[in-house]
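Sequence and structure are kept together here, with a separate record for every protein. A complete record is shown below as an example:
=====
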Amino acid sequence: MPIRVLANELTTPLIVKWGKVHGQEADELWNEFVAEIEAGEEGVPNGAFADSTTDPPTYWYTFPGGGLAQLEIRNRRSWLFVRDIEVVIVNLIFSPLPLGD
């Protein structure tokens, strides 16, 4: 089943800045991040921890370059069958903050 990794309108600018900081290495880091998500069960990467304080439930997972990504898993359905899974990055936390202004 296909898994798509997307950023929302709040995290897209952060990911763009993250890419500029990491330069050419950013593509490789991003591809590894996506591969880890795809290798997990139903879009939840191995080692992610659930955040039960959110609705819908989200998961926190290590983001390349010293950060954490909050992931929301969305199952897109056709009738009763899941046709694909969207993993949306709804929050990013970097430590230390490497992105500057």
Remarks:
- The chain has a mean pLDDT of 86.
- The CA atoms of residues 33 and 89 lie 12 Å apart.
- The helical segments are 12-22, 25-39.
- The chain has one domain: 3-94.
